[in-house]
Write a structure and sequence with these properties.
Strand 5 and strand 6 form a beta hairpin. About 35% of the residues are buried. The longest helix is centred in the last third of the chain and has 42 residues. The strands form eight sheets. A five-stranded antiparallel β-sheet has the order 1-26-25-24-23. It has a domain of about 45 residues. It is built from 31 helices and 31 strands. With about 850 residues, it is an alpha+beta fold. The protein is about 40% helix and about 20% strand. One of its GO terms (biological process) is cellular response to starvation. Pfam families: Beta-prop_Vps41, TPR_Vps41. It comes from Macrostomum lignano. Keywords: Metal-binding, Protein transport, Transport, WD repeat, Zinc, Zinc-finger.
């Protein structure tokens, strides 16, 4: 169909603006039908039509039946070949209608010769014949004729012919009405029979044996041609007069419950209707104006209107000689086929399948939609993902969308030959660089010449992409040495080109010339050198280039040296970095942090390096290390006037007095106090106090910080008459204040201790006074392990010490305590708790 969106036009009912191409505003829709002419090529239908012309047609899934003006009936396949090789005889003049049962075994025909003939298509014989008194225009055979042996026909009456006891019975289903004319069309669907006359359409139920509905010809219809009828089942049928269309349904009446016919939709049509067929929820209408090409309309019916979705002019042979009465429109519902018939031609319209859909998409340039359809729905016929995809790629290349075409290759192409052919196609289009990133590296692996071709083209157009490719491609894909020569030759003309240098370095690496690769990377000051050394174990080649590596990246160089301790010896690195003590300090410090034992023998060197480049790390190193020589370290620190480090070394050497004197000479009195505390040596405190006699600030410092280590009286006696001691008053005030605070703390502690003792004594007394539960018959003597009183024994008299009970819970007979070693224990003590009874 040549599609148009008429629906939106009718909804707005506004004409397009002046100068606007209204057709361009609507997107072309895909046709719903495809067409072919029955009898094309070397078939029998053209020869039949050379000497006769068609008057009616019946269709079946196995064949089509053509009735002609000379009374012949031909059984043809759908291509137009005569299946039986001859015609069915029996009629002497025009065949008006043909009807075939569902199985395709029997055929009924009627003619102007007033006869109805039933043909057996198996034995090609006439099954039965019915002679009426008038020309017969319509006949309908039972869908299950083999079982029912019945058919419906008539002149101006509707007659059901069915088997009788002896002969066939002719039962009149409907009598003729005045001026209604002959029955022109009959349709039989299950138990429903629908027929049309010049005056209207009627429906009859064979099961209920009654009329279901009557549809009169509209008053607006001036043409008295009988209606065209199609019935999809026993509950639905459509009828079309020349300019009116009705959709009817057989359903129970809400009041009576009996089945009746109801009009569910109707509309007027502006063209002269020649036939009607159902098309899902839509309708196909065949129309013609006198001596013009017939048209097929696809319409969507409403309750009282319609929307025309599409229209197609049909190229029928000899259309200019025909009127609407010369056309027929038949439907083969099971196959989705429609036949447009005129005296000299048969056009078959068929619902389009996926192949037609894909072909239409491709013809309209909708390649992506076609490819998506094939990928989701699977291949069909010649349309596979590969074939459609290649057409899409060809289209993209033709419009210059090279990147999208290259991406699509990964989805579409699979075999080696396909990829190689596509590579040469991209090369011819001058867009090899677009495909380069998408070429497969394996499965399949292409010929080396293909990769060489791609690299050569990319090298000419995009050096950065060339570098990306050689970095990602394995060396077995392309001719490494040949490509290396090309790059080296180009680099000789542009020696400072960064990209070319990096390309050549990568190619040297692929060819195994790692030293050349390293040399180029170092020249470029590239951090890739570190990865190269790690990959190919080039430690021996970089030991003499360590300063250069440090300049490239200090942290990564240190990390490389630390990570591969087997490849780099500390001695060789010290030797190489001896001229750059700063780098050597960083290296040894990093090793010391990771594994102090490895640099223990280089401790003297580290002391010197720390002293020169990392003063803040020297003292922690001196405290943690024992491998350095004290004398060398002392001389070095003293030479550089590193007082704190010198004091620490002197202390470790046992020369505490020298260390104290150094601090005193430097007048670092706060550090003097800290040093004395750290060493915890009373002699150092006394030495410091002795040195205070001529150092007034030291007196103040000791008074404020020495605490109980130095008697304040000694310090005060060191003050000579007339000596100015800065801050002395504040120091003495602080000393006295501290003394008062100390005294208060001591008194407070004594008070708390006294209170605690009293509380504990009270608790002890309360514990001693608490009652004890004693059962003389069950509690045992600790010494003899017998009950305190035997059963029936009377308690002792008052004043007689017979039993001894202790607050600890132990019990004794008095004689047991006196007659044992427990008697040596004081009377107030428990022998058991004293350990004398065990």
């Amino acid at each position: 169909f040549q599609e148009k969106l008429e629906e939106s036009r009718e909804a707005t009912e506004e004409p397009p603006e002046a100068g606007c191409d209204s057709e361009a505003e609507y997107e072309e829709l895909e046709p719903r039908l495809k067409y072919h002419r029955v009898g094309q090529g070397n078939t029998d239908l053209p020869r039949i039509l050379d000497k006769d012309f068609i008057t009616c047609l019946a269709v079946h899934s196995k064949f089509i039946c053509v009735g002609t003006n000379w009374g012949n009936i031909y059984i043809l396949d759908h291509m137009g070949n005569n299946i039986q090789g001859r015609s069915l005889s029996g009629h002497s003049t025009t065949v008006n209608q043909i009807s075939v049962d569902e199985k395709g075994e029997y055929l009924a025909s009627c003619s102007m010769d007033e006869r109805v003939i039933i043909h057996n298509l198996f034995n090609k014989k006439t099954y039965s014949t019915l002679k009426l008194d008038k020309p017969v225009y319509a006949v309908a055979i039972s869908p299950n004729f083999a079982a029912t042996q019945s058919y419906v026909t008539g002149d101006d009456r509707l007659i059901l012919v069915e088997p009788g006891f002896i002969k066939k019975q002719h039962r009149v289903l409907a009598e003729a009405r005045p001026n209604c004319g002959a029955i022109r069309c009959i349709v039989w669907a299950n138990s429903l029979v629908v027929w049309g006359t010049e005056e209207g359409v009627r429906a009859y139920c064979l099961v209920e044996r009654r009329s279901l509905t009557s549809l009169p010809r509209p008053a607006t219809e001036t043409d008295r041609t009988a209606a065209f009828i199609q019935a999809s089942d026993e509950a639905n049928f459509i009828a079309a007069f020349r300019r009116s269309v009705y959709i009817c349904r057989i359903a129970p009446d809400p009041n009576s419950g009996r089945r009746v016919g109801q009009i569910v939709a109707s509309f007027s049509f502006p063209m002269t209707v020649c036939g009607i067929c159902g098309f899902g929820k839509e309708l196909l209408l065949l129309s013609q104006k006198e001596k013009e090409k017939p048209q097929l309309h696809l319409v969507e019916p409403g309750i009282d209107t319609y929307v025309e979705l599409a229209i197609e002019e049909l190229k029928v042979r000899g259309f200019e000689r025909y009127s609407p009465a010369n056309f027929r429109f038949e439907q083969l519902r099971s196959e989705g086929m429609y036949f447009i018939v005129c005296p000299k031609d048969i056009i078959c319209a068929q619902q389009r399948d996926r192949s037609d859909h894909l072909q239409w998409l491709l013809s309209r340039g909708k390649f992506k939609q076609a490819l998506d359809d094939v990928q989701q729905g699977g291949s069909i016929g010649e349309f596979t993902a590969a074939s459609v995809g290649r057409k899409y790629i060809d289209h993209l290349l033709s419009v210059g969308q090279f990147g999208q075409a290259a991406e699509l290759c990964q989805t579409v192409l699979s075999g080696k030959e396909e990829w190689e052919a596509m590579a040469y196609q991209f090369h011819q289009a001058g867009c090899t660089s677009a495909l380069a990133r998408h070429l497969p590296k394996s499965k399949p692996q292409l010929d080396t010449s293909v990769y060489d071709l791609v690299l050569n083209e990319v090298f000419k157009t995009d050096r950065e992409q060339f570098l990306e490719l050689i970095n990602s491609w394995p060396s077995n894909l392309f001719s490494v040495r040949a490509v290396t020569r090309v790059v080296a030759e180009d680099l000789s003309r542009q020696p400072n080109d960064q990209i070319l240098n990096r390309c050549l370095a990568r190619l040297y690496e692929l060819s195994g010339e790692h030293e050349k690769t390293l040399s180029i990377l170092l020249k470029l000051r590239s951090c890739d050198a570190f990865a190269l050394v790690r990959r190919h174990r080039l430690h021996s080649h970089v030991v003499n280039k360590l300063p250069l590596l440090f300049n490239i990246n200090r942290e990564r160089t240190l990390q490389m040296l630390l990570d591969d301790q087997a490849g780099f010896s500390i001695s060789s690195i010290i030797s190489e970095l001896s001229s750059n003590s700063g780098l050597l300090c960083d290296y040894l410090d990093a090793v010391h942090l990771k594994d102090p034992a490895r640099v223990e023998k280089h401790a003297d060197k580290m002391v010197e390096l720390y002293a020169d480049h990392a003063r803040q790390k020297l003292l922690p190193f001196l405290r943690s290390s024992s491998g350095f020589k004290y004398e060398l370290a002392l001389a070095l620190c003293a030479d550089r006037q590193l007082t704190e480090e010198t004091v620490y070394i002197l202390a470790r050497m046992g020369r505490r007095r020298d260390a104290l004197n150094l601090l005193l000479d430097e007048q670092q009195f706060d550090r003097v106090v800290q040093f004395c505390r750290d060493e915890a040596d009373p002699e150092l405190w006394m030495a410091a106090a002795e040195a205070a006699s001529d150092r007034p600030r030291l007196i103040t410092t000791l008074l404020e910080n020495s605490g109980s280590e130095v008697d304040p009286a000694i310090l005060i006696h060191k003050i000579q008459p007339g000596m100015v001691v800065p801050g002395l008053r504040n120091s003495i005030v602080k000393l006295l204040s501290d003394y008062r605070v100390g005294t208060a703390l001591t008194q407070g502690c004594a008070t708390i201790q006294s209170q605690d003792c009293q509380n504990l004594i009270h608790k002890q007394i309360a514990f001693a006074r608490r009652p004890m539960s004693v059962s003389p018959s069950s509690n045992l003597c600790v010494r003899c392990r017998t009950p305190l009183l035997a059963d029936g024994e009377a308690p002792p008299d008052a004043g007689e010490a017979h039993l001894l009970l202790f607050n600890c819970g132990h019990y004794f007979h008095a004689e047991c305590r006196q007659g044992s070693e427990a008697a040596a224990v004081a009377d107030t003590d428990c022998p058991a708790c004293a350990g004398m009874c065990y």
